[in-house]
Amino acid sequence: MAQRDQEIIDIKADSTESRRDFLLLATTTIGAVGAASLAWPFINSMNPAADVLALATTEVDLAPLKPGQAITIVWRGSPVFVRYRTEAEITAASAVKMNELPDPQTDEARVKKSQFLVVVGICTHLGCVPLGQRPNDPKGEYGGWFCPCHGSQYDTSGRIRRGPAPRNLDVPPYVFKSDTTLLIG
Amino acid sequence: MRKNAIVRWIDHRLPVVNFIEKDLIGYPEPKNLNYWWNFGSLAGIVLVVMILSGLFLSMHYTAHIDHAFNSVESIMRDVNGGWLIRYIHMNGASLFFVVVYIHIFRGLYYGSYKSPRELLWMLGVVILLLMMATAFMGYVLPWGQMSFWGATVITNLFSAIPVVGPDIVTWLWGGFAVGNPTLNRFFSLHFLLPFVIVAVVLLHIVALRIHGSNNPVGIDIKNDSDFIPFHPYYTVKDLFGLGIFAMVFAGLVFFSPNLLGHPDNYIPANPLATPPHIVPEWYFLPFYAILRSIPSKLGGVLAMGSAIFVLFLLPWLDRSKVRSATFRPITKILFWLLVVDVLILGYLGGKPPEGWYVIFGRIATGWYFLHFLLFIPLASWFETPHALPTSINLSIKEGTATAIASAKKKGVR
Ligand code: HEM
Ligand code: FES
What we know:
The complex is a heterodimer of chains A (about 180) and B (about 425). Chain A has about 180 residues and is an alpha+beta fold. Chain A has two domains: about 1-45; about 50-185, Rieske [2Fe-2S] iron-sulphur domain (Rieske Iron-sulfur Protein, 3-layer Sandwich). Chain A has four helices and nine strands, in the order αααβββαββββββ. In chain A, strand 8 (about 175) and strand 9 form a beta hairpin. Chain B is about 65% helix and about 0% strand. Chain B is globular. The complex binds protoporphyrin IX containing FE and FE2/S2 (inorganic) cluster. FE2/S2 (inorganic) cluster (FES) binds near residues 123, 128, 149 and 150 of chain A. Protoporphyrin IX containing FE binds next to helix 3, helix 5, helix 6 and helix 9 of chain B.
């Protein structure tokens, strides 16, 4: 036994020590990389599945809408607000100075036809649906939308004016297929 | 050593009986523990109640957005005794937090987080975090309006993380909004996490066993006259406490099962309409108040996280060698102010974020952080603690007040 211990010590003292260290390090590294790359498919399995991603587009007919009215459409499981804005609302939205806005953006940059404002109806704070679509809803001080969750207020261009939300309401990708047919997505 | 040959045979190979005798029944405990020390074992019992009631609920529950709400209603109306099992699970979750919060404040008052129990304390904070995650995901399962919107708001907290935030949220949801994939994974995790909690609780107990329980005067056990065996003394005391607890529990379950819940959760989830006033379950309200008092999205999220994270640092923020606040005149006052502050935060968290509520919310949030980051460190430097009693035994014989006086006379510190 003592004889063997001696041998082991001898081997350690030898120059092979660095070779062993290298082999150990290499094995550990390969093992760790292997384990990490095996973890990825599992993590990735929690990302949206193909059928969820395939939910592409939604088409709506805006012909029945009159100035001052609004409708809510479901796109990819989320509400999209379409508001047929009055002349007064459009002028109010474009009159705002950029330095008054927490997230500066001109009204023209947010619409394709100035009478129709199309925005994703999800508060950019923590995801509640702001009020302001129905005639008797509170619309906040800026005449747009009011989020009941933590009090964010949006204007008639869907831009954040006051409250904890960091960004303007998102504008989804959309095209007008005709004067009144809207294709979202 | 046991007489019974079979027991001896087994113990020689698997020392379970030995463990029970040495580490549970005969374990020496300080003999001056008061009723605040009941809440640890109580928390363990409630955890078992949650796992058992949850297991039976899961036999009838369907984790699908089209069926979840109805399956819970069927548990309430059709399943034999289903209403009882669900009300036990629902109110058990609330009482779990009551018990654990008391347990935590006990530790804060008596300095149980101090050396050599820092890791014990930190494991406790980990348990609190796991409990919060479990309860949050459980509340999503019945798929009512509060379930849905609570899930939306809380998962959106992660979108505050710079750059990768939105991708993380999509990953958490498994879609572009809270939906069926979200409900499914929340059910899986809600089933798993309680067992992770059990594992951390075991570590918590291992850490406890090394240096034993702290006690109301916060001094170490010095000799045989300072302790008594766990059984029968504390088994009986814990059982008595359990009896009282069971009465409160039964009172809630049978007479007012929805007292602590929100009526909106009996409305099926509607992804297109947020209820006018959404609030989390009561046990999250203080943290929710902190979230809302910071007028920036990332700031609010960071503040809420820090409110718990600061507890991890507490053992090092408090420099005092004296554990129990009984002997620390300033810390004692600070402790009670913190209790009031957290109650105020809880009250404000349930109010709409307008006018004075916001102002008071900011003051109370400020106080919470100042308590841990400024007042406690300062107090631990500058306050002069009372002289400590010479032993646990003496502190009982003479009563704490006279023990302080006599120790002063003898000049013992
Ligand atoms: C740490 C322990 C646990 C906590 C704090 C907890 C908390 C909760 C909460 C707050 C709810 C929502 C109750 C409601 O409002 O309806 C819930 C529901 C549920 N839990 Fe748990 N739970 C725990 C353990 C478990 C376990 C271990 C299981 C499964 C084995 C489970 C299965 C369920 C099921 C199926 C539901 C949905 C039915 C319902 O909503 O009543 N739970 N849980
Ligand atoms: S989610 Fe709209 S203000 Fe917080």
